[in-house]
Write a structure and sequence with these properties.
The strands form 3 sheets. This protein has a 9-stranded mixed sheet, with helices on both faces. Helix 5 links the parallel strand 4 and strand 5. It has 14 helices and 17 strands. With 508 residues, the chain is of the alpha/beta class. The longest helix has 26 residues. It is globular. It binds 6-O-phosphono-beta-D-glucopyranose. 6-O-phosphono-beta-D-glucopyranose (BG6) binds next to loops.
């Protein structure tokens, strides 16, 4: 992991490499990959010998591709674009036409990579698949068949795969099996952009670099955990994608489970990819498998109706372009899960995510058990609130601890107060895309922030009963909510049944 602002002694410059982008003309490359590479270049974290090879499906001149990427960079850069940095980044950019539908077309790519070896001595290749999921397998097969995934003579080959990784347990297993026939696990970098977020990475540091949290981080002291990813954006132009996906597939087995795994995992013995990913995988594999009946009882799925979010009017999900008028796809999902191990048995993890909600909020809230009340029985105090530790990821990056304190005055009265740490008050960081660390780690060969096959499959295995149960239930049980609210009423009932309450999504 790195700090993209300064090159310090611990940060090493990656080996020379050709950075081959499939889908270079697409949205992801323009919005995130290229601006992140620009930021790395500006921070001095790209190797001296570095070439971008953009793979296009139609013949495109390198000059045209460069102009197109430059335009995209100007639009999406997170920092003011300096011409000399952009020139250095695009210095040896080449556009290559290759299409898995025409396997012979890969020859041009081979020739280009060979040219980089001869002219510049670059022998390492990173293949970034910024393409729709249906293209992961054909492109990897095309590379494999051409011998481009074979590592030899210290030259590495790495394959970066974006989400979604499969659409259910079976397809994820199949994709893993297909890729592992072509490359070794250490060559695969399955991206989950949540792991590029500083505050997400900080969960590990908060837990394992402080002596005070770990002793109470278990079922003896923790009452429950809430993980929230609420979004104000609606489905917008992504109707056809969303109709195939829904909120559960889109967010839970990947982003929300990454947060859950970091909160729930056992301390790894070393800070390396093998140890960290093994412990995360174990935590996900310990999520108790629910029967379909239990899954129905322990979940809520909702779909938004028209409503107002701030000064924006949002239409019905069912009236979105490319969405069926009688769609039963969920735009909101809430689940109650339990982790069946010694640390967590009996501690519910409540997860929720949804689109077109009142506020954008990503957080993990740990609620501690209530202190014994007996000492206050003879006082005016009616109740003690339970302590909260909240890890804020959006909109505020930081940590908040809520605890009880005496209200000044002659009588003993108690109120809950908040102690807040905000990242921006302590650290100055240049604005990043969130992809810098991930791309840098790919280049230095550190896959600690990437998903391993077992973790991906454990995630899908945990959500599969919900997918099955919801599919069978069809429209029955789909709870409607108005856009601009905090989701369906049924989601509140899910916690109220257990005598608990969600934190507000639109609080400070
Ligand atoms: C993506 C989902 O993976 O994550 C989107 O496909 C979602 O639907 C996005 O909006 C949320 O990411 P973030 O970083 O804005 O929380």
């Amino acid at each position: 992991m790195m700090n993209a602002d300064t090159v310090n002694a611990r940060e090493r410059i990656p080996d020379s490499c050709c950075f081959v982008i499939f889908g270079v003309t697409g949205d992801l490359a323009h919005r995130l990959v290229i601006p992140a590479l620009y930021n790395l270049e500006e921070s001095g974290l790209l190797p001296e010998k570095f070439c971008i090879v953009g793979v296009t499906r139609t013949e495109t001149q390198s000059k045209t591709l460069k102009a197109d990427l430059m335009k995209g960079l100007e639009k999406h850069a997170t920092r003011p674009v300096k011409q000399e940095i952009a020139d250095k980044l695009f210095g040896c950019l080449t556009s290559i036409h290759a299409d898995p539908g025409d396997p012979k077309s890969v020859e041009g790519l081979k020739v280009q990579l060979e040219k980089a070896r001869k002219d510049k001595g670059i022998t390492n290749h990173l293949f970034y698949l910024a393409v729709p999921p249906g293209a992961f397998k054909p492109i990897s097969e095309m590379l494999g068949a051409a011998g481009l995934l074979k590592e030899k003579d210290d030259a590495w080959r790495r394959l970066v795969i974006e989400k979604p990784f499969g659409t259910d347990l079976q397809s994820a297993k199949q994709l893993n099996a297909d890729l592992l026939k072509l490359a070794d696990e250490h060559q695969l970098y399955r991206i989950d952009h949540y792991l590029g977020k500083e505050t997400v990475q900080n969960i590990l540091v908060l837990r394992f670099a402080n002596g005070m949290f770990e002793p109470i981080w278990n079922r003896n002291h923790i009452d429950h955990v809430q993980i929230t990813v609420s979004e104000t954006i609606d489905v917008g132009t992504r109707g056809s994608f969303y109709e195939q996906t829904g909120a559960l597939r889109d967010m839970v087995p990947n982003h929300l489970f990454q947060l859950m795994a970091l909160v729930a995992m056992e301390p790894p013995s070393r800070f390396d990819a093998h140890s960290v990913r093994s412990e995360k995988g174990e935590a996900l594999a310990a999520i108790q498998t629910q029967t379909e009946a239990e899954a129905l009882k322990n979940s809520v799925r909702g779909q938004y109706l028209a409503g107002r979010i701030g000064d924006r009017q949002v239409g019905y999900y069912r009236q979105t372009k490319d969405v069926s008028p009688d769609s039963v796809v969920e735009t909101y999902a809430a689940l109650k899960l339990t982790i069946d191990n010694w640390r967590w048995a009996g501690v519910p993890f409540y997860l929720r995510t949804g689109k077109a909600l009142a506020a954008k909020r990503t957080e993990v809230a740990i609620r501690f058990k209530q202190a014994p009340f007996s000492m206050f029985r003879t006082t005016e105090v009616e109740r003690l609130s339970q302590n909260y530790l909240v890890i804020g990821i959006e909109p505020t990056e930081g940590i908040m601890l809520q605890f009880n304190t005496k209200v000044p005055g002659p009588q003993v009265t108690i109120d809950g107060v908040e102690m807040k740490f905000k990242y921006k008050d302590y650290f100055k960081a240049s604005p990043n895309t969130g992809y810098e660390t991930l791309i840098y780690d790919c280049m230095i060969g550190d896959n600690i922030l990437f998903q391993r096959a077992d973790g991906v499959e454990a995630g899908w295995a945990a959500v599969q009963p919900f997918l099955n149960a919801w599919k069978k239930a069809g429209g029955k049980g789909l709870a409607m909510y108005q856009a601009g609210t905090d989701g369906p009423e049924e989601a509140h009932e899910l916690l109220e049944r257990d005598g608990r309450r969600w934190r507000a999504i639109d609080g400070e």
